């Protein structure tokens, strides 16, 4: 006798709630459909549901996201790096206290004191016919960040070595909820044949029809709730084996909205705006912003960054401020909307020649016009680099391209062999945007402060 088991999932919503009413409406229809047929469905989230770029997530510290998952009747979820390292220790510790679903993160532990009551390594869900589906949760091990926030984050592979042995005999099917990214998912599938399905996220990859690595089925549904995912498992109850595995990701745009969810989001937004309407300071004159020019507010923000981190110099791209400030009262909501990025200040050590190369790269058209997606950046383009402690003279070639002519650090030429401490945004320590910064072996991250916290300090200082 065969049993069909249905797993539906979301991943990397990043608080993009514009599609959430349609997603919930679809889940309700699928649940009714399966209930009428006596079939089992499980609803799963793979993390990064919370993103502090949105005022609801910012003002309510992610708690509204959890209630949205509750109301949609999710069964199991894991966390992503946006829940894990953009919230304070206290906010993450209490985030899932009222969750009606199981929260699984096998490679996360509290540094000091007991783990929160909601934290577990895996969940075993049982179908209508008694089939046991073990769901393990793993999240990306950003060790440098978690440690500063009071959490221990361990190797996903070490945890799988332990858990897969522990789950032997306890489950019939094993599903990994992975917020690790596509490369780790593929490696896990090669190393651990006992995992039947990997539902992935973090790298925002999209597998419309799943992907096979050895005998493991991988699936993922992109980002922002544009796609949602479905896994269908055919379990032979008598032979106790999986006969078939299928995975699909499909667009949600043509689905009907759930009106109750739409109203709930409107209420949360009203509550969030009320909280964020708290005044921070009052400006006697407007402070305009230009992504390709140095402006007063950007110059002052970079100076705040330099002094706050006690660095030799500092640099930030003008695109971190999405618009300028009007004259008059400035609220928390204004600061959040103008600087929505979950980006932290950081400080890196660079040799003089490396610092000069970073400055040269930052003045290229490629850098200034880069439409960066991810790495904490929630803006449009990077824009011009603005400095504190540095004097950068530029000129243009015959084709109009800008190049660096001269650089002084605190009035002196940069010494190629000297080590300097440079403050910037943590965005540049990831990827290959500015390789010298990313490859620095000496990085100091400042947490839980975000750039907008420094922006608030700056505005109060200059108003």
From TrEMBL:
The keyword DNA-binding does not apply. Keywords: Hydrolase, Nucleotide-binding, Signal. Residues 10-205 form the Calcineurin-like phosphoesterase domain. It comes from the Bacteria. Residues 291-427 form the 5'-Nucleotidase C-terminal domain. Belongs to the 5'-nucleotidase family. This is Bifunctional metallophosphatase/5'-nucleotidase. It comes from Pontibacillus salicampi.
């Amino acid at each position: 006798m065969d049993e069909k088991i249905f797993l539906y999932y979301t991943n990397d919503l990043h608080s993009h709630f514009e599609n959430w009413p349609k997603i919930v409406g679809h889940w309700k229809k699928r649940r009714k459909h399966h209930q009428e047929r006596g079939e089992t469905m499980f609803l799963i989230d793979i993390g990064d549901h919370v993103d502090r770029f949105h005022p609801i997530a910012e003002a309510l510290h992610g708690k509204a996201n959890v209630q949205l998952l509750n109301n949609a009747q999710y069964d199991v979820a894991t966390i992503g790096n946006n829940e894990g390292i953009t919230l304070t220790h206290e906010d993450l510790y209490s985030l899932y206290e009222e969750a009606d679903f199981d929260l699984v993160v096998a490679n996360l532990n509290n540094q000091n004191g007991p783990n929160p009551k909601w934290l577990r390594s895996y969940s075993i869900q049982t179908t209508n016919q008694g089939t046991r589906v073990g769901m393990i949760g793993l999240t990306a091990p950003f060790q440098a960040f978690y440690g500063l926030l009071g959490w221990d984050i361990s190797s996903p592979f070490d945890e799988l070595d332990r858990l897969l042995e522990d789950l032997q005999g306890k489950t019939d099917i094993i599903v990994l909820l992975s917020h690790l990214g596509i490369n780790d998912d593929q490696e896990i599938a090669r190393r651990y044949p006992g995992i039947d399905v990997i539902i992935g996220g973090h790298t925002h990859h999209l597998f419309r029809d799943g992907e096979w690595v050895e005998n493991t089925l991988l699936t993922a549904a992109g980002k922002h709730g544009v796609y949602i995912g479905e896994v269908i498992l055919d379990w032979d109850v008598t032979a106790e084996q999986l006969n078939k595995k299928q995975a699909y990701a499909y667009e949600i745009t043509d689905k009907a909205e759930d009106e109750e969810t739409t109203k709930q989001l409107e209420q949360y937004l009203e509550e969030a705006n009320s909280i964020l309407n708290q005044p921070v300071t009052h400006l006697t004159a407007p402070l305009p912003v230009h992504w390709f020019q140095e402006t007063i507010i950007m110059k002052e923000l970079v100076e705040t960054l330099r002094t706050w981190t006690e660095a030799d110099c500092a640099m930030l791209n003008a695109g971190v401020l999405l618009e300028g400030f009007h004259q008059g009262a400035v609220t928390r909501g204004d600061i959040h909307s103008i600087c929505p990025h979950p980006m932290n200040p950081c400080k890196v050590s660079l040799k003089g020649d490396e610092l000069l190369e970073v400055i040269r790269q930052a003045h290229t058209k490629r850098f200034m016009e880069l439409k960066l997606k991810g790495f904490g950046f929630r803006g449009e383009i990077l824009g011009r680099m603005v400095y504190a402690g540095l004097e950068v003279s530029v000129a243009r070639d015959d084709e109009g391209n800008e190049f660096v002519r001269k650089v002084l650090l605190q009035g002196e030429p940069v010494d190629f062999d000297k080590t300097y401490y440079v403050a910037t945004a943590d965005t540049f320590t990831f990827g290959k945007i500015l390789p010298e910064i990313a490859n620095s072996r000496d990085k100091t991250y400042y947490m839980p402060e975000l750039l907008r916290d420094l922006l608030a300090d700056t505005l109060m200082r200059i108003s």
